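Let's practice the habit of predicting before peeking. Look at the sequence and jot down your guess about where helices and strands might fall. Then scroll down.
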Amino acid sequence: MTSDYVGSVVSVKLNNGSTIKGRVLRISPNTISLTELAGKQKKDTLDLFSNEITDLDIVSLPTRQNPDQKQITIMRRDQSPSRRGSSPSPNEMIPDNTTRKQYKKGDAFSVSVSNMSTDFDFQSSNKLFQKETIFDEWRQQDGCLPRHTNSDKLKPTEMVIESEAPIPGPTFDGDFMTDDKIPMVGLTLSKRIALFKRAINCGLSYSHVVSVAGMSVSQMVIQVLGGTCRVSLRNHNKPPVVAALVSSGESGKVAVTSALHLSQHGINVKVVLLATPKGCDGLVNILKKCKCVVEKGLQGLPNVIDIVIDGTQDRSTLLNWPDWMNSVIDWTDQSTAPIVAVDPQHPTQMPRSPTPPKFTCSLGAPLLSQGQTGRLFLIDIGLFPLAFKEEDIPYRSPFFDKFIIPLNRCVKQRINSG
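Done guessing? Here is the structure:
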């Protein structure tokens, strides 16, 4: 209690640098009163506020006081610790619950030194926590394998708790390889047509394949354009311009569907309808109602185009070789815009080779006869493993968390194609 110090002789150092020596007459929450002042003081008593005191030394204690207590340091909260005294603990500065309401913020004489508690020893208590034992119990409860190399540090990509067993990798070789080292067997066009028919007979809808392929191509085009850096409300420049070349084959249907998706994302789409694909009259009418430019030829295209979707390289178009095909090749040869080819299917002999694309999208399964493809990507269109199995095609789904994945040609496939 603060009354225990009444009668003590103290030496008080003030903010102005002066020192006053006297006997404690009374102590209140914000002041201390001294009497029997040393020196030439005119007043018999002197009241000092707590914010005026820098340091306080006890010269002598009353006879009732414990002689082991020799020094106490009283400081304001906003002052740094004095060299002569020690820093006050939180218990010195904050009163207990019984007297908290009657004191104000900044009180310096509210708590007795005898009420101070010792600090909690975190270091010794932490040694009692056996982490390895706790982790082993977790692994046993979850049915996970124990860690054999406890001394090794975990890598950033390593799981904290291991799975029961690693997933076995594929046991076959392929003509293509994904970035995750999953092989993909390259198919001939006839083999892939048989694969598609098998999937459709099992219930897969052809319209679903075209819709999914068109949406995936549009997603890829947006990423090539720059993603959110180019296609967003923060872009104050003119919207990007995309030209979609549409033929009457299967690739043309995917190109029309992709143009419809892109037009809904604020992209300026120019559709060159070289031939209307079967069953796509409704999509073309929607494009016209959405104020998309639909041209019958290449003459109406602007000089500056950001990207070209080439839907003219399907097998039926290249075998028939329409009159406008040479004009398309001449235009793409002189254009500086990158070309995204939609599932090209090149026959053995053609009057001319189409312009090599920068990106190629293959639907479901890669083809061996796609000519120069640039960067090859595989699109998930919903082909299921059962269809591959019934056609005796080695297959393991390579997509995992993605729907569009890059493919790399294997060495033997590059040698054969070269």
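How did you do? The longest helix spans residues 206-225.
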